[in-house]
Amino acid sequence: MALFISPIGFDEKFLVRAFWRRGKAQIEEVLLVKPKDKNEKAEKALLSFLQLLNEVQVQHKVLEVNPSDFVESVSAIAKELITSKRTSYILNLSSGMRVISLEILTAFLLLGLDAEIEVELENQDGIATWRIRDMLRGEVDVSTDVKILEAVEKGANTISDVARATKYPVATVWRKVNRLADEGYLAKDGDKSLQLTTKGKIFIKLYS
Description:
Blueprint: E1 2-7, H1 13-22, E2 27-35, H2 40-55, E3 59-65, H3 70-84, E4 89-92, H4 98-111, E5 116-120, E6 127-131, H5 142-153, H6 159-166, H7 170-182, E7 186-188, E8 194-196, H8 198-207
Parallel strand pairs: 1-2, 1-4, 2-3, 4-5
Antiparallel strand pairs: 5-6, 7-8
């Protein structure tokens, strides 16, 4: 169960769609971030979305910030995250002011928190999703790590398979695969088979 976080702007439709895509099965609480300045259209959108949350009995909180004061806004958002004590987060950055979206993202980066990010396209023709850890390079050795990632992309999904494909020693592959998994370039499913993550796929396109 996650804390769902989003700016809110003049139109609640992006938030409504985002909420119903996941529902109460995934969202336990909602944090909305809005400018302190009052705006009739924004207030109407806020009240409409809060009415929905009340009807489905989902906890919610509204945090008001001054978006032009980057330091204060990021600090306020970060403090809210610290006090929430949640461990799972969904960031919907489809609504509201762009600067508030960036302030939310900055707060997560400064706290070292991971989260799923989703942005609905303005033409409503799709949704881009990724994780905060996909934005962090981490420790990588381009010359060897890209060969390991390429091997996984081509179907090598165990340590032994990768060692055969790359001709690296098994111990070396084991060490590098575990580091790449820790850094978010690879994922291991329940039976330990290897899969590329979003960041791993980008890394291959950059360096192969």
